Amino acid sequence: MAWPDHSQAILQNCYNVFRLLHWAEQHGEVQAFVKAQSMHKLFDLLEDFVPAFLETVDASDFGIFQELDGFHYGPVERNTCVSIHCFLDKIQEHFTSIRHAALLYNAHLVYTNLALSDMRVLYSYLVSFNGAVSSYKLNRPPFGRIPTAASQPGGGSSSFGRAFLLSEEEDFLLGVSRRPSSGPASLFVPAVHLDAGRGQLVALTFRGIMLVLIFDAEVHIDVRLLESLRDFCSRNSGDGLSLVELHPLIVPQYAQVMEQEDEYRFVYYNHTNHALRLSNQASISRSLLGGSRVASAGPKPAERVFLAPLRATLADPKMKCREVSWKSADRGWVCAKRWCEREFYLLLDGTSTSLSRCQDECARFASIHFSNIFMM
């Protein structure tokens, strides 16, 4: 079996995040950037960004989650999804400088009007880390960083980390960093460079919900504007289109699916909508990013290394495999199957399980889950 080149996936992610935070629309290729700015400017950005990025790379934990760059989707009912869509439209109508918006719950993507290519990079930057997700990722090591010049008007250093820490459940992750009551007001609103063009990134958290907004690049954002935005989103509107009214709809619908224990342990990925799903296990564990949660176990740490070569085999055009299973002497089976744009990795415990039983379980799992894990 051929092992995938994880370094290529890591370099691609490094480039994507660097481009997100630094690559102005008009700069284009590196040569054009150097010509428009200077080689010194490029060195300044790289010397600040690259060490910060490398701190987040865990060489001991390379595996399939460097390759599967996708979304953990938050399941909600259709009517709720329509209400969220209307809520985001309402915000954009009231604050006309907002170009794009997305809503997440517990770091799971619920709805976005951004292109998936842009949303994937934002998702990777804001909440996703090596298969785990956390709304507070940028608050914590290895991502949390002291303020840099990027937090000041005209600043040019790295925006990779955060410039302030969340102290409340309802506050700006990216936005108002200090209010007038606690000293001179200040903002941390990183410029971002998407396929859809340049913008300014604001993220507001509210009782587990994260509202991600892309403002027009040319608009002047100040504390008054963002506080007005927060008040508008978090007060009762009477029409059901506010965070405080959407929250009691999202929470039970999310919990109904995501907090139930799955019969199987698995990893699922859909190439069409980049849905990434790990099985839920009914046990409390420490999150990779801090805090406790109901474990989305999927593969155990020792099993992660087995998934990458199986995925490489499925992806190898010379092999033309749609299904491959692997078993070691000291553990059960790891089964991988790909059908059209979907693939899954099923983890079966028990050293005495036969190959025929393994294939039966794989077929049963596929019949249960292939058609209904996430339909977005």
Your description of this structure?
The protein is an alpha+beta fold and 376 residues long. It has two domains: 258 residues, no CATH class; 110 residues, Beta-Lactamase (2-Layer Sandwich). The protein contains ten helices and 16 strands. Strands 1, 2, 5, 6, 7, 8 and 9 form a seven-stranded antiparallel β-sheet that branches. Strand 7 and strand 8 form a beta hairpin. Helix 1 crosses helix 6. The protein is globular and about 65 Å long. About 3% of the residues have low confidence.
Could you give a short description of this structure?
With 376 residues, the chain is α+β, with helices and mostly antiparallel strands. The chain is built from ten helices and 16 strands.
Return the string of H and E elements.
HHHHHEEHEEEEEEEHHEEEEHEEEH
Query: Helical stretch count?
Result: 10
Q: What's the helical proportion of residues?
A: 25-40%
- Using the CA coordinates, give the radius of gyration: 22 Å
Biggest β-sheet description: 7 strands, antiparallel
Quickly give the structural class. alpha+beta
Compute the separation of the termini in Å: 33 Å
Shape: globular
Q: What is the tally of beta strands?
A: 16
**Overall pLDDT confidence:** 81
**Which runs of at least 5 residues are low in confidence (pLDDT < 50)?**
284-295
Strand content: 15-25%
The total domain count is 2
Topology (SSEs and partners):
Elements: H1 6-22, H2 30-36, H3 39-54, H4 64-67, H5 78-94, E1 98-105, E2 108-112, H6 116-126, E3 128-129, E4 132-133, E5 170-178, E6 186-188, E7 191-194, E8 197-206, E9 209-216, H7 223-234, H8 243-258, E10 265-270, E11 275-278, E12 284-286, E13 292-294, H9 304-315, E14 323-327, E15 333-339, E16 342-348, H10 355-369
Antiparallel strand pairs: 1-2, 1-9, 3-4, 5-6, 5-8, 7-8, 8-9, 10-11, 10-16, 12-13, 14-15, 15-16
Helix pairs in contact: 1-6
